[in-house]
Amino acid sequence: MRRAISAWTVSLNRAKYRLQTSLTYVNARTHTGVVPKTLPTIDMSSPVCCAPVAAGPMNDDDALQVALRLKALADPARVKILSFLFSSPSGEENSGDLAHVLGLSESTVSHHLTQLRRAGLVESDRRGMNVYHRPHRDAIVALCAVLDPNCCK
User: Fold this and answer.
1) What is the per-residue pLDDT across 65-123, written as a single tens digit (0 to 9) for each?
2) What residues are paired with 132 via a beta bridge?
3) CB atoms within 10 A of CB 93
4) Is 54 helix (H, G, I), strand (E, B) or coil?
């Protein structure tokens, strides 16, 4: 029993040393001894609502809102997910079916859906053990309207 406790103590001391070493490394990397702040989160759940790009110079907040939504679409897998959701006969699909059709793992599809959901481009509902996803059509239409170069002619 004493030998088991001794081995456990040695293991615990090694874990503490590794933790202290990694914390020292993080603090050395930040140069200030403080972990950097996280960026503020922006609510993108509602459709983008600002003057079209062609209407004139945009202010910083509106430009950020449009850029974050475009950034969410700047991945081929996410474009394929939206394309599949729009062309779905039922108008919605579950994560497993999306993974199968796209040839990706469910965790990868889940990550991409999370990014699209944060950008307000996809809506999701949990039903039992499945989560069903559908495109947020109003958000896509609003994003298209903002990007329309012929809006103000």
Assistant:
1) 888 888 989 999 999 999 999 999 998 999 999 999 999 999 999 999 999 998 889 99
2) 94, 125
3) 22
4) helix
- If you search the block for the tokens 């779905």, which residue do you land on? 88
Q: Can you give the three-state secondary structure of 16-27, one letter per residue?
A: HHHHHHHHHHHH
**Total number of residues shown for the chain:** 153
Distances in Å between the Cα of 72 and the Cα atoms of 9, 117, 119, 135 are 48, 9, 6, 13
Please give the Cα distance from 141 to 143 (Å, whole number): 5
Per-residue CA distances from 26 to 17, 18, 30, 40, 107 (Å): 14, 12, 6, 21, 28
Name the pTM for this structure: 0.66
Tokens of 74: 């700047």
The residues, any chain, with a CB within 8 Å of residue 101's CB and separated by 6 or more, are: 84
